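Researcher: Go.
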Amino acid sequence: MADLRKTPSLQHAVALIRPTVEATLLEMEKLDAAKIPFSLNPSRKLFKPLMEGCSLEWALRQIEAEKHLKNIAPNKDLTAAFFHYASSKKVSWFREPEPFLYPIGSSVMIPVRPSGFWVQDGQLKVLWTQSWKGRTLDPLQKAIFNTILQQTFFVGDFKDAGLEWVDLCEKHPRAGREVEILDSANLGTVTQAELNEALGSGLIAKRAL
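Model: Structure:
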């Protein structure tokens, strides 16, 4: 199996999709050329303890102990933003699911793994954290993302679960990250034909590289 280019998650894959094959190809080429000097994974690893009530001070100490110095500042920034969301929860337990794979073509798979899930007021809730600071998904991309997520993850035990898309991007330059929470209805969906067309442009562009 092969993931769609170098995309580590469903969100990354959907962010590459544009209305035309040419535009999608350009996004893939930009991804190949990108040299991102840091990873946000240290902060993502703290989502579970923060959801379960750990303090921001404790979490920031974990980030400050990072061996890769370039990771410290962006991860402290993300951790502080996520804490604003998590501090209103303090759930008794928060679990990280196993990754699912969504097939979009022969030997091409997109990894699908929400940040975690918990029970709130008797309902199973699923969290997807949008961790990027400088960008987020546009409305069409959100609808494509949500459609795939519903088909892949919200089945079986999670069929009636509620989704919280927590967007932590910086909406205005130098204004700092904000917290926006959207449910599945606000993310929207696309038809199966629209989904097939969008994913088809990604596959064609992938073959063109």
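Model: The beta strands are 2-3, 100-105, 108-112, 116-120, 123-130, 162-167, 180-182.
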